[in-house]
Amino acid sequence: MTLLSRGIAAICGAVCIFTCVAVLTIGAVPVHAQSLPTPSTEPVSLAPADIQKTVDIEGSDEDFNVPPVNDPLEPLNRVTLEFNQQLDDWLIRPAAKGYDTAVPPPVRLIIGNVFGNVGDLWSATNNLLQGKPRDAGSDALRFAINTTFGLVGVADIASDFGLPKHKEDFGQTLGRWGLPEGPYVVVPLFGPSSLRDVVGTFAGDLQANPFRALPDPGARNAITATRLVDARARLLSGDRLFDEISIDRYLFIRDAYLQRRESQIWDGDPPPRSRKAPRR
Asked: How many C-beta atoms surround the C-beta of residue 60 within 10 A?
């Protein structure tokens, strides 16, 4: 595992250097962008269609009689959102564009597959903790197949075998256990979250990251930076949506995040008491 981690770290280090050269070449022009994505989960799609899917418009009046969203930190959250957007404008988004330009699509696919393969093992653990042994077994089998026959995840052979990917994190596990989401929070660099998801990210997801075991801090930093830039590059196609938003962007991101997380916790089928109208 140490040799594997060092190999991945070397690749990530080369990608980081290549990306920096590309950024200096194409120039980093600040533009208005969205807040940064959350790291412990799949890149968030904020398209209106995704939001509509998480709302049961056929629900009864009782379903829609819900209290306002729990957002007592809104003034601070708005400041943090603006900070994240400025950081994204000046650093993360230009780096993601450089990465997207400099790194060929096949290489980006391989990098995403390797990170995704590592994530499958943690997804299997969370599925087991959530009482979903079938999904846990499927994810564990995915990890075994892709690690062996797929060359440590370079190729996603398991998908060709009909084994779907289940992306689960510890925040979803806590929600499945019934822990309330708590107040909405915008975390510096990490973006939109809730108190429950903050606990899940820092006490679970980050602690379970196998690359933390690398003894070389440079290697760990290179892997973390590559993972962040790769995730941000996957969201570049959605930037235009945010540029065209004329409503309050803070409310849009907040409602989309909370509704999507609720849908993720219950695998797209929340119980009747959790089917709520859009919260304002």
From this structure: 10
Per-residue confidence (pLDDT) for residue 262, from 0 to 100: 92
| Kind and range of the H or E run holding 115 | helix 105-129
Please state, in angstroms and rounded to a whole number, the distance separating the CA atoms of residues 75 and 234: 30
Contact, 101 vs 22, CB < 8 A? yes
As a whole number of angstroms, the distance between CA 280 and CA 74 comes to 12
Cα separation, 93 vs 192, in Å, equals 17
pLDDT of residue 236: 83
Asked whether the beta carbons of 213 and 5 are under 8 A apart, the reply is yes
* Assigned token pair, 112: 């995403």
Identify the pLDDT of residue 246.
61
Q: Which residues of the chain have a pLDDT value below 50?
A: 1-4, 10-11, 14-66, 274-280
Q: Report the C-alpha gap between 116 and 82 in whole angstroms.
A: 30
Separation between Cα atoms, residue 16 and residue 9, nearest integer Å: 10
Residue 195 host element (H or E): helix 195-200
Q: How far apart are CA 269 and CA 263, in angstroms?
A: 7
Q: 3-state class of 151 per DSSP?
A: coil
The number of angstroms, rounded, from the C-alpha of 119 to the middle of its chain's C-alpha atoms is: 11
**With pLDDT > 70 as the criterion, what percentage of the chain qualifies?**
71
Every domain of the chain and the residues it spans = 31-89+119-215+235-274
Could you tell me which residues come within 8 angstroms of residue 159 by beta carbon, excluding any fewer than 6 positions away?
142, 165
Q: CB-based contacts of 122: which residues, under 8 Å, 6+ apart?
A: 168, 169, 205, 208
- pLDDT (0 to 100) of residue 214: 87
What's the start-to-end Cα distance of the chain, in Å? Answer: 47
Q: Give per-residue pLDDT as tens, 174-205.
A: 999 999 999 999 999 999 999 999 999 999 99
Whole-number Å distance between alpha carbons of 86 and 35: 9
